[in-house]
Amino acid sequence: MSDQRAAPPSPASPVADAKGWIGRPVKRIEDARLLTGRGSFVDDHPPIANIHAAAIVRSPHAHARILGYDASAALRMDGVVGVITGADVARLTRPFSVGVTAPVHYYCTATDKARFVGEPVAVVVARNRYLAEDAADAVAVEYEPLPAVVDVERALDPGAPVLHEAVGSNVAGHRRLVYGEPDRAFAEADIVIRERFRFPKYGSTPIETYGVIARWDPLEGAYTIWSNFMGPFIMHPLTARVLGVPENKLRFIVAPDIGGSFGIKSSMYPYMALIALTARCTGVPVKWIEDRHEHLLASSSGTDRIAYREIAAREDGTVLGMRYRWLDNVGGYIRSPEPGCSFRPIGNFVGPYRFQHLEVDTSVVMTNKSLTGPNRGYACGHLYFETERMMDLLAERVGLDPVEVRRRNLLQPEQFPYRTPTGGLYDSGDYPAALDKAVELARYAELRREQTAARAAGRLFGIGVALAVDPSVSNMGYVATALDPQFRAKPEYLPKSGAVDAATIKVDPAGRVTAILATTPQGQGHQTVVSQIVADELGLTPDDVTVVDEMDTLTRFWSISSGTYSSRFGSVGTSAVALAARKLKAKLVEYAAHLMDRPSDQLEFRAGSVRLRSGTGPSYSIKDLAGRAHWNTESLPEGMEPGLQATAVFGFTVSKAVDENDCVNSSNTYGFIAEVMAVEVDPETAAIKILRYATVHDAGTIINPMIAEGQIYGGALHGLGGALYEELQYDEGGQLLTGTFMDYLVPTAVEAPVIDIAHVVSPSPLTPLGSKGLGESSSMTVPAVIANAVSDALAPIGVRISELPMSPSRLWELIDGARKSAGKA
Amino acid sequence: MTVNGQPRQGLCEPRKLLVDFLREDLGLTGTHVGCEHGICGACTIFFNGEAARSCLMLAIQAAGAELGTVEGLMSDGKLHPMQEAFHEHHALQCGFCTPGMLLAALDLLRTNPEPTEAEIREGLAAVLCRCTGYQGIVKAVAAAAGTLRDAVETAPALLRHHPLP
Amino acid sequence: MKPPKFDYHAPPTVDEAIALLTRYGGEAKLLAGGQSLVPLLNFRLSRPAALVDLNRIPSLAYVREADGYVRLGAMTRQRTIEFSPVVRRRLPLLAEATAFVGHLPIRTRGTIGGSLAHADPAAEYPTTLTALGGEVVVRGPRGERTLQAGDLFQSYLATALGADEILIEIRFPAMPDGAGFAFEEFSRRHGDFAIVGIAAMIIGQGLSCTAARLATAGVGPSPVRLRGAEEILEREGLTEAAIEAAARRAATLVDPPSDIHASADYRRNLTRVLTGRALRRAIARIGGPECPTLSSSG
After folding, report:
1. Looking at beta carbons, which residues of chain C come within 8 Å of B50?
2. What is the full DSSP assignment across A88-110?
3. pTM recorded for the entire structure
């Protein structure tokens, strides 16, 4: 593996020199096909013949023992080819590995019990989806309903229904992590503030749902699964094990176009296993396209969480330490990669602040709700909602402006690269500069003056601030923090770490350049970004570069960490591309040197050609060299491989396994977000109006600012969704109340705010281009900033926000309650 | 029926949804399925010159009608001004809602050729997007409104036969 | 989410449609715009033996004005109503309410007859029919009858229509010349059903009020006519104090539900707030350019 601590990247600003393509808002290659209806989403172009359709029979009960199945009526129906039940699944597959030691048996259907409404219990395969659904209606399943529990605190009560008898309680895992001396910090503090928070269960609901097409080849003993799965590809060996085939007999092919994912499509692998098994059992290729009701019922979402926070501080607002106690609700089973819900941000648990003393007590709890997994901003929306609310409560207590109290606690630029108490390694950053820029962009002083006047007129005008360290590129090892150090110390335990990607660049005989990756994009414009990088490196224009981005586990290089999630393309993917281009360049120079019979250090690659540094003599363009290399291999220097291509694999060396003190650098590059929002709350309807929203992002080198801005807008709206509109709500019996888009409220263009965006650039020293990633961006901060703004707006009437979402009805109840207890009508 | 100006026909059960018929029987996969209950708008097509949700229509109801889909927006190998505007203003990321957005936007401009930003947002609320935060789309529609107002031939083939209500 | 099997008929006349309804003995459903029915079919929440499609009966769609009434064929599209010069001139409250009905693509197919027959109390058209004192003409095997709004809407998604009857026409008395009007609605997102909606029409001059009409959406199983609030205005005029009193009274006249989107208390509060807002907007419009007019131009 090449040395990733490369030389500091050239041009540090997001706008490179005039000839450079990096930093320019290049329009997207992807648009042409997507604008004309010629995309290749998984349901668009059948890859093989004779594909049948599956319809999944799902449990209507939140918690029930499964006593038996009767598929006889279904099997007699028109067009039906077969029915698979949980009994078949239990017999023919293994349960999935889980990220905890608790003996949770999770199969791709319910087997002994159904543990959430919507859990698959059987699958019908028929000629088409209409007939399959008809037959699914006719599958009879006998249940013995059991009492259900959905509240994460009630699930811990002694008398609560227990979902997994083998586990004995509803706690899938519990860890208490201690860093520094939090008890001492709290004992010495001038101020201790405690608060309880509630963060809702919601998910990004991409407009394209899960789609799987599976085929079993009995002669090869191999499965092929086409889908819109986005990674991480650790799920591939996991799924192979479940299906009982060697990994090279399980082929995942990912559709070239994916209609959004935001983490949600990382959790579809159990359905891939299920449909694959179904194909094998029925002997026909099977397609399953998830419908919207199924998606809301049984796909994936973030956890709902109850958090108890404590902050220890001095009178001057300096934070000494914090305590986090979390109850994360993962639903009926703990499905990998949970408990990432707690541990994903372990490296940045302290956020952008200097405090050294932290205690984290986290319980991952199972209840009769649908399952959870990565959702945009994975665990950070929760983390920063709590931390940033606490910082505002601290500001209020010590009588400081919320911006000032944060300034006093921020890490300073000279402290970078900074090792956090929890093992994170913040590679670069200038947090005070970004905060100052956000304050300036928002015209903060003017907003405070406006607030004074508004308050005098009785209006509810509030300003919120939120800061976040934006962790990108998971180090896969972080999930092991869920396991006890003693367990990890056992000799048979294999530690995990890593964040890797590969790219190949090849030149054809006529000199045309093709870059090949396997990164499963879902709208992030990878082809365009790659063309910019390759164009810069090789002195071409982006239009000269063909980019192929297709994932096929049989034919492409990939690793367990492959995929497009945790904003990793921006740093790992782009780094692999840059390194492959540089390798190719070096090869071109070496070849030209051989042709000119000169030492290669006398040559340079510039503007698409190799020539002597002195500027005299012949020059060889890529086309010249490609023609010679392909047509006359004798002309190559001894030892040089024929053909003209280069492959680079990039991996972060700062990705290490969790150590015995529960410290781990859970991400590889860390960006920063500072934002300010001003709102007005209508005192009569409690409607919230966003008056101004300014955000400053530091994601290192920005390769395409147009794409970056799009990511910020999209991420912010996901955050706003969870803060105001979206929640997967259940009744006490575990029935989902928001099973349609009429009740699960996805924000429209009317609800979407206009955002003032600015950037600060602290290039990462860890990537060749200095880029980090910003795919998750403001999804992590908007819940915090709007909760702070609304709390500020309602401060005169004594209402503080500690629960989301803030629907008008809930907000009004708080306002009305506060007014009544203050004696006003 | 006529689809994008071409006569098309098929045979299906009465219950087959129009969006499924377009995709499966006519091979027009540009129109997408996102919710099957009329909220997300990914299935938006033109039905006799007006935007409608094809997941809420039965294929059989389209017999004798003139349909327009995203595949019919280009003419003579050139992008429609609305498609151009989407490209210029980064109005798409994953592209799944895009066909619906394009057609909903076109219908909006036909009924309101000079919309304010608020009116554009209200019109676009007919289609859900989870990628873009809508900003690029709003800008694209505003830009296209200007272009379409000035162009002599503003409507692609699929809209030509049906004047404004 | 695909529909279950059903027989399908697309008769060319109303009488044939009625005959089909009779033949299926209550197991057939009428397909109008489909914007409410097809989702139910796709979710398999509705499993009719047959669909009787009304979209091939062109004589059911029209907008006519005569003798002080505006008559709309039941299959008139909401989109047609939105842009109809007759409606804008004589029933501007209905035009304004239409802008709140979903989104334009929904209004392309959705019909006024379908909306009224579906009787969702959070929808805009049942409320507007109630406020404007409209009536519907219903035809069945035994002939035609007329129903007032108060008699048509019986409960949540339930009307007085028999299983073999078809709503064929909606009649509104044209709004009086110079009447003020407003449709006020609060929802979570643009285009959603109302959490609470208020339709208001005020006939008056200066501070005197000849007649007030107020009806609700979203606060009960059917639209509520806020007669008690209307009386306050008719008795005390259009002063700020009367508006406040009427708004407060309105909140006492409703018994709203609690659901995942809003509590009963919040809906009661919104009833008061939106009644006030609707009244102020309606009053400001009296005699102004947006009012209904008798002019026959346009």
Report:
1. 79, 105, 108
2. HHHHH-PPBP-SSSS---B-SS-
3. 0.96
